[in-house]
Input
Amino acid sequence: MTNDLTENLFSLIKSLSASEKRQFSLYVGRVGVNSDSKFLNLYKVMSRQKKYDEAEILKSTSISKLQLSNVKTHLYKQLLISLRLNPAHQSIPVQIREQLDFAYILYHKGLYQQSLKLLDKVKSLALNYEEKNVAYEILELEKIIESQYITRSMNNRAETLIKQTEELNRLNLISSKLSNLSLELYSIFLKMGYCRTEEEAQDIKDYFRKKLPRYDFKELGFKERLWLYKAHLWYSFLIQDFLGCYRYSMKWKDLFVEYEHLIPIHPVSYLKGNHYLLESLFYLNHTDLFEVTLKELEDSLRDPKIPHNDNISALSFLYVYSNKLNLRFMKGEFGDSDELVEKITQKIAKFKGRIDEHHIMVFYYKIACLYFGDGNNKKCIEFLKKIINNKSLEMREDLMCFSRILNLVAHYEAGLDYHLDSLVKSTYKFLIKMDDMHEVQKEMIKFLRNLPDVSPLDIKDEFRKLHNTLKKFEDHPYERRAFLYLDILSWLESNIENRPVKEIITEKFKELSR
Output
């Protein structure tokens, strides 16, 4: 057994809830001979361990070093079988798969009529719950049986099966092409963030038009429309069309209103749709609607239709708390954030194995921005270092670039400017390496590089000059990207007017709310 599988087994055991452990004990105990089996003894020892210790396993059990690999493999398989039998994991897709397995067993026993009857029933269930891939597989088995056994159940049986197969095949092909396009666009976004130039945006537009399959919208079901909206959403995010983001995230959310019975089947997609709607509203700065939508998301998490499991718990934390931070930015409410930050860091530790590093780094950046807005620059730098020192982070180049820009500004604000020159040089080199030097960043680097040589009497004039220079980029289709991450203009205004940056942002929020 490989080290990866050893780690997988250990993490699987540690993820078991109390009810799942009881279920496993009952499952194993159904056969008396298992009560002292080697795989059960291995489970008992690993359950007690806080860290995997092979020496303790060999000492505490009768398992030899040569046997250990096979026993681990067997234990892993038995745990998965037990979890599959657990009522908490008996979702509709699992039940459909189980019924299909039963139909295969009946077919192999030569009980064709029983198999066909079960297949017809489970096919209706699969189509009702939009499990078209499984429905296609069911049809293929029906055709195999019909080709071997004449049922005489329907005069045009062959034609019906062929028509159903062709229709499902066409829809599954559209769904596959849309899901591929959605995933490709999401991958591009994770790698580089928003389009940085007109050329990049044009490349994305050409790519999207080329890859978008032909379809008749009236024929599309839930799955096809869901992938269509996802693809359009990522396309809109990439080209910074936030109205488009709002439009398609709203369509995504409305899709689950139309197919309400599918919320328990696809709770992750349901939550994601709400999250991206909130992201769109954040970038459009629609604060009132944002607050209403966030409350709706929190209320929906208490709905019994949403299954409560480890995955949903991790995603609920990710979406709710990410947007709680966004709401603070929108309102300019930067103070009294220690309790919120403490709660977030605790939950990051709790769900670390279930949340990818990219999302954790986004949390750290938002927390850094929160502290920067509150004037707590040392705390801001502390969280930025977590991103800057992360050598394994290969996604969201823009996140890494803006972390370094904010780090420079925070060092200046904190009075830690004794090595500002070396920080400016290292940041400049990094931006060149990332090929992410925009006009806003160039002006910021130039300003910070010259700052130590500026007379205190002239400092406000320098802030005003930079403010006038950057103001023209605020509504630029691609340069405005810089202001999505850090409200540089409010920071400059706070220095010009000798007022806290949070005061400036709060005033702007009140102005927009009128």
